[in-house]
Design goal:
Elements: H1 2-65, H2 106-119, E1 125-126, E2 131-132, H3 134-141, E3 153-158, H4 164-173, H5 176-179, H6 182-187, E4 188-192, H7 196-206, E5 214-216, H8 221-225, E6 240-244, E7 252-254, H9 262-272
Parallel strand pairs: 3-4, 4-5
Antiparallel strand pairs: 1-2, 1-5, 3-6, 6-7
Protein name: AhpC/TSA family protein
Organism: Nitzschia inconspicua
Length: about 280
C-alpha cells in the first residue's frame, strides 16, 4: 500500500513538472511572438516615416521646379495630378517698372532751349553796377522774355584781353551818328574778358559815352558757351558778332569782324529783324 502511494506521488510530480514545463514553454513562445510583432511594428512605422519624409521632400522639389519642366505642347508646366501640393498663399512679386522715355513736344524743346540760352547771360557782370546780371537781369537783356521783348539783340564779343578790335568798335559805335538812338543801344551790347576796373579806367581815359552797355566775362563762360574761344585755322582769336532773335534759338555768329564795319553790320542786322509792316 505504501509502495502504491509512493508510485502515485511520483507520477503526480512528474505530471506537475510536465504540465509546468509545457506552460513555461508556451509563455516563452508567446513573449517571443509579442517581441517579434513589436519589432515588425517598429520597422513598419519607421518605413512609413521614411516614405512620408521622401514624399514631403519630393513635394517640395516638385513645388520648386513646377513650371520649369515643359509638357508636350509647351503650354503648361508638368505636374503629377495625384499629388496635391500646398503652395501656400500666393504673393505677387513686385517688379521694377522700366521708366518710359520722356518725349518732349516741340514747344517744350523750344522752352528748354530758351531757358538754357538765358542762363548763359546770368554770369555776365554789368560794368555799370559791377554785379552779375542774375536771372532777372538776364531776362531783361535777352529779347525773348516777356515783357522785355525786342526785335533782336546784337552782341559784339572778343575773348582777347585788352582787345584793340573791341575797343575800336566801341569808339566807332559811340560816335555822334549813333549816340542819339535809344533803340540802337537797347539792342547792341559788348562783352569783354577784361575786368571791371580795367574797363572803367579805359572808358574814363577815352571819354566814351555812358549810354553804351558793356559786360565783363572774366572766366570766359559766356564766350565759351557760344564757341568764341575755339581757335580758327590761323590759331588766333578774334572779335565776333552774335545775333539773338525773339525765338531764343542759338545765335547767328559772324567771326573776324572788322571794327570799322561794326556800326554798319549792327544797323543792317537790326533792319533785317524789324517786324514787317
Amino acid at each position: 500500500m505504501k509502495r502504491d502511494r509512493t508510485v502515485e506521488a511520483s507520477n503526480g510530480n512528474a505530471l506537475f513538472c510536465s504540465t509546468w514545463g509545457k506552460v513555461s514553454t508556451e509563455q516563452r513562445t508567446s513573449k517571443q511572438s509579442w517581441q517579434r510583432n513589436l519589432l515588425l511594428h517598429d520597422r513598419s512605422r519607421r518605413k512609413d516615416a521614411t516614405k512620408k519624409k521622401d514624399k514631403d521632400l519630393f513635394e517640395r522639389l516638385l513645388t520648386s521646379t513646377r513650371g520649369a519642366i515643359p509638357t508636350e505642347n509647351d503650354t503648361e508646366s508638368a505636374f503629377i495630378a495625384s499629388i496635391k501640393v500646398d503652395q501656400g498663399p500666393k504673393h505677387k512679386v513686385k517688379t521694377a517698372k522700366t521708366p518710359k522715355p520722356t518725349i518732349k513736344t516741340p514747344k517744350e524743346d523750344k522752352e528748354d532751349e530758351m531757358v538754357a540760352q538765358r542762363e548763359f547771360f546770368e554770369r555776365l557782370i554789368y560794368l555799370e553796377t559791377s554785379n552779375a546780371l542774375g536771372s532777372i537781369g538776364a531776362a531783361q537783356l535777352v529779347p525773348w522774355v516777356p515783357p522785355y521783348l525786342t526785335d533782336c539783340l546784337v552782341v559784339f564779343a572778343d575773348p582777347r584781353s585788352s582787345s584793340g578790335d573791341l575797343r575800336q568798335a566801341i569808339k566807332y559805335l559811340t560816335s555822334n551818328l549813333y549816340e542819339q538812338s535809344d533803340k540802337f543801344w537797347k539792342q547792341v551790347v559788348f562783352v569783354t574778358v577784361d575786368s571791371v576796373p580795367e574797363m572803367r579806367s579805359w572808358i574814363q581815359r577815352t571819354n566814351i559815352s555812358t549810354s553804351i552797355r558793356i559786360f565783363c566775362d572774366p572766366d570766359l563762360k559766356f564766350m565759351t558757351a557760344y564757341g568764341l574761344t575755339v581757335k580758327e585755322l590761323d590759331s588766333r582769336w578774334s572779335m565776333s558778332l552774335l545775333v539773338f532773335d525773339t525765338d531764343g534759338r542759338k545765335p547767328e555768329t559772324v567771326r573776324n569782324v572788322d571794327p570799322s564795319h561794326a556800326a554798319q553790320m549792327a544797323l543792317k542786322v537790326m533792319k533785317e529783324y524789324e517786324p514787317k509792316r
